[in-house]
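re: ur question from yesterday

yeah so i grabbed the chain u mentioned. its 273 aa long if i counted rite. heres the sequnce exactly as i have it in my notes:
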Amino acid sequence: MSYNLLKGKRGIIFGALDENSIAWKTAETVHAEGGKFVLTNAPIAMRMGSIKELAEKTGSEIIPADATNVEDLENLVDKATEVLGGKIDFVLHSIGMSVNVRKGNHYTNMNYDFTTKGWDVSAVSFHKTMQVLYKKDAMNEWGSIVALSYMAAQRVFPDYNDMADNKAYLESIARSFGYFFGKDKKVRVNTISQSPTPTTAGQGVKGFDGFISFAEKMSPLGNATAQECAEYTVTMFSDYTKKVTLQNLFHDGGFSNTGVSQEVMEAFIKDEE
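ran it thru and got these structure tokens back, copy pasting raw so excuse formatting
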């Protein structure tokens, strides 16, 4: 069921790779709610994924851009405003990558060149994107910028590795840049801390299935799906959340505020018996 929440709104969606990705589900949901957008991803990611299928389905153009490259981002914003016929109302930053995770490097034995690369892709790219939007005055007033995060920014998940640091930095950028974007342009900036979700990126983390089943047992409402995250993101893009900014919003079925659940307690009691 759609409500035309984004009728007449224009945006940029980063990071749609395949139908498992939250960005992909968000694009489909934005389209259903009447929003128009351009899709963007790094050229290498576009070769791996099936973004052209999504573009056809949603009547969207694809503008390739390396989000760590300011010139690419400038080109993206210029072309997006041209294609969409005006300033931008919403942006989704759904990008994350750790070379250390991919290479199997333990957190206590990191390759720092890999660390820098992952940090640039996963977090600094968010600052670069917003800086380009800000300098070009490319956002409409009351626009909304959202980046996707994870609970490991606040708590230890040993195998999440340096992605935890990247997400903590990402959330800090949202607050710091969000202050200036709000003050100067009336644009809101937030992060959504989503349940562990079986996306292509998420499944690269060691023990990810364990994360998912533990969170499911801990969360009173169970894990939030990629589709549910897409729907929540759409509410953040809509005019119904005009005064929400500088927030890290937990979308995790209550996991973030649950100390222990009955199911987890029962599992430990069984072990003791």
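noticed a couple things. The first helix runs from residue 22 to 32. also The CA atoms of residues 210 and 216 lie 10 Å apart.
anyway ttyl
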